Amino acid sequence: MKKILVSIIAFAAFAVSCSDFIEKDARGTQTLENYFQTAQECENYVNELTHRLLLPNDWWTLIAPRVTNEMSTDDAWMGNTGQDSGAHRPSSQYFITPDNMGDMNSMYTAHFYTIQSCNIGLARMAQAPISESQRNQYEGESLFVRAYCYYELVNNYGGVPLYTTVLGTSDLKLARSTAAEVYAQIEADLKASAEKLETIEVYRNGRINKWAAYALLARVSLFQEKWAEAKQYANKVITEGPFSLEPNFLNIWDVNNHNGVESILEAQSSSVQDKNLGCALPTLSGARGEDKKNFPSNDAADVLDGWGWCMPTSDLENAYISEGDVIRRRSTITKWGEAAYGDEVLNPTHKFSLNDNKSGRICRKYYIPIATRRALDKKDGHLPLNVPLIRLAEMYLTRAEANYHLNDADGAMADINVVRARVSLDPVVGMAGPNLLRKIYKERRLELAFEGLRLFDIRREKDPSTGRPVIESLMGPNGTFVQYNLNSTDPYETTNTKEAQDKGINFDPAKHLVWPIPQLEIDLSGGIIKQNPNY
């Protein structure tokens, strides 16, 4: 009996939950044995892998967990105080258990599903009758996708089962590899990806290229405190890549500036009305309770009315204010009643339901301008917001942090000053030691807020005063972020207590530097997979 190939899902239908491929009579159908016979078939397969990783149709599989990770930091509340928070509360409030993980469970399963699909594609494309250039393109992209899956897995859950070949049900009971072993495979995949993609001279928007591989190598090197390698790869992207900083910070997330000059890897979207190719972020994190009467037009076409999750904290806003950072603050946060930055004429006083919003703030980076809203008959699932996943400013900040640890304070200041100059901030001069490191950390927070790095950063960054992870000084009963909230006088956050004001008080450094492994996966492995400590 042969395995039917209806689509990528039919022959990659795998999760760590270990159900086998469905087997049916495959006479007259495409199968694993007769697919991958043309370049178009290989490209279609890789396109689906990339789509599944970067901007999946099912928003809850990856987009929601990534947003939930933001809610687990000092940058964001859950925010929606009018609906059930069960998907986000376990991690954002640090109540998470292996049996109650909310949407952090779906990311674990989805990534292993994609890893198995990558393994299938790599095995089959190695034998496909296509040109060497085509093989390099498709294999290079697949290796990157596999590496990115493992990058998110190791940063969320620690060491996980590691495999690079096609597995059947008899092979699936794998023990966890160490985090170091997972990182080693990520690096190997990215180096192989970059080598294969070096031969590709023409770059197309939305496709993975060698610069994405080098940039992710810079990031994972930084996360492992491999300072020389982090500097090497970041420097390569900065000095050899075709990228430059956007002159206007707000344009990075502009719906009319897809794949701008700064974006190294950007998840694609489209507002084509008869397709479901849009981005879910503006809906998931859009202002809840918009009303046409609050817009000058008094027109329902101007209303998006999002779900209201992942609302900025006043603590984050204060971080911008303390730097006099008006441009990045307004490009990142819109407070209730303020004009939407860049959309002041059509939305001069952005108002929404304060009864349903914890902080009286929304994320400006996810905002859809009024003119774009008016052009859409369908909005949910059709919003044209591309999502930058890796961009050039991060490479400057990566090189800055690496320079600091390589005892090059001048180089570190030069790099952060490039990023600061773009938003009209004075250069940092004459700074060294712990204060310079803190400044680098702060620049990462202000520059990259709501771009998927804050939780990973505060877990890995070391507080210069204690040598412990920064998150330990922020969260827990005595954490500075917790104490700030408990003593806050913010007029929005303190008057809407339907989300608890003691956010982060339940953080326990003995376990919360990673999330637990889903209990179902441990059970299905027969106990071979071991749980993270203290869960």
Automatic annotation (TrEMBL):
Keyword Cytoplasm: no
InterPro entries attached to this UniProt entry: SusD-like_N (IPR033985), SusD_RagB_dom (IPR012944), TPR-like_helical_dom_sf (IPR011990)
Coiled-coil stretches noted in the UniProt entry, renumbered to this chain: none
Highest taxon listed in the record's lineage: Bacteria
Subcellular location: Cell outer membrane
Start and end residues of each SusD-like N-terminal domain: 96-222
Pfam families to which the protein is assigned, alphabetical: SusD-like_3, SusD_RagB
Alphabetic keyword roster: Cell outer membrane, Membrane, Signal
RagB/SusD domain mapped to chain residues: 348-535
Record family assignment: Belongs to the SusD family.
Protein's name according to its UniProt entry: RagB/SusD family nutrient uptake outer membrane protein
Organism in which the protein naturally occurs: Flavobacterium flavipallidum
